[in-house]
Design goal:
Layout lengths: L1 E3 L1 H8 L6 H10 L5 E3 L1 H13 L3 H11 L1 E3 L6 H12 L3 H12 L4 E3 L3 H9 L3 E2 L1
Parallel strand pairs: 1-2, 1-4, 2-3, 4-5
Helix pairs in contact: 1-2, 1-3, 3-4, 3-6, 5-6
């Protein structure tokens, strides 16, 4: 399973994004893998489409891609606080790590170098 960061999904959905081609390639390379994201990540991805009145279309694309939402567990608040304190990452990035831990996933796809560095440090493969 690959846990996706918003940076990859946003870039894939927006042809004008500087990372669009790279994001699309990441997803093509992951075609045989299960894809997942935290609810916070999915919400981040859907903000732009919601502003553009294209929310349902974006949700349908995520569904067609097979992106599964990894639900937050009952102890998510304390787990996220601990991750934030230990890593110094922003809370949305901590949501990616928590989703990867809870899934459990072997890898994370991101264009965020800070998130990538921490993911590698805790034993996740980065795509």
């Amino acid at each position: 399973m690959i846990v996706l960061d918003a940076s990859v999904l946003i870039a894939h959905l927006d042809e004008r994004d500087a990372h669009h081609q790279a994001a699309t390639q990441v997803l093509v390379d992951a075609a045989d893998s299960d894809l997942a994201a935290s609810p916070v990540t999915i919400a981040e991805v859907l903000v732009g489409p919601a502003r553009a009145k294209r929310l349902r279309e974006a949700q349908a694309l995520l569904d067609a891609m097979g992106v599964r939402e990894i639900a937050l567990k009952a102890d998510a608040a304390s787990s996220l606080a601990t991750l934030r304190a230990e890593t110094g990452l922003k809370l949305p990035d901590c949501c990616v790590l928590l989703a990867a831990r809870d899934a459990p996933a072997r890898s994370v796809a991101t264009f965020d170098e800070g998130l990538a560095a921490v993911a590698r440090r805790i034993g996740l493969q980065v795509r």
